[in-house]
């Protein structure tokens, strides 16, 4: 009986190599890039438009100051998530570069 799992691959150094990314994981990574980017692109600049979109989507009316804060929070959330995704991607690329040397 083979002690190794079928999904592990031996490398020259004897360490187990990483499995190839599954299709579901890869599509999740792509959605992680697309959703905040599209949200930033389609987010209205006018607080009245934000209030109108909220009213159309939920049926709840919000005030203009609330719409202004909501827009600012959405922009901050989208930018923060994109920065996080970029940092995670750079970290994995740097780890991959160090392991190849």
How many domain regions?
Answer: 1
Summed over residues and divided by their number, the pLDDT gives a mean of: 82
Number of strands: 2
- Biggest β-sheet description: 2 strands, antiparallel
What overall form do the CA principal axes indicate? elongated
Q: Report the portion of residues in β strands.
A: under 5%
- Poorly predicted tracts of residues: none
* Separation of the first and last Cα atoms: 34 Å
- As an assembly, this protein is single chain
Number of helices: 3
- SSE series: EEHHH
- Portion of residues in helices? 55-70%
List the strand order in the largest sheet.
Answer: 1-2
Helices and strands: which structural class?
mainly alpha
Give a brief description.
With 101 residues, the protein is mainly α. It contains three helices and two strands.
């Amino acid at each position: 009986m083979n002690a190794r799992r079928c999904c592990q691959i031996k490398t020259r150094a004897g360490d187990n190599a990483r499995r190839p990314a599954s299709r579901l994981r890869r599509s999740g990574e792509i959605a992680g890039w697309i959703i905040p980017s599209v949200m930033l692109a389609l987010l209205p600049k006018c607080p009245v438009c934000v209030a109108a979109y909220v009213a159309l989507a939920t049926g709840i009316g919000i005030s203009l100051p609330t719409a202004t804060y909501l827009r600012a929070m959405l922009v901050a959330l989208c930018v923060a998530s994109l920065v996080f995704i970029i940092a995670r991607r750079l970290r994995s690329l740097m780890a991959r570069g160090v392991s190849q040397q």
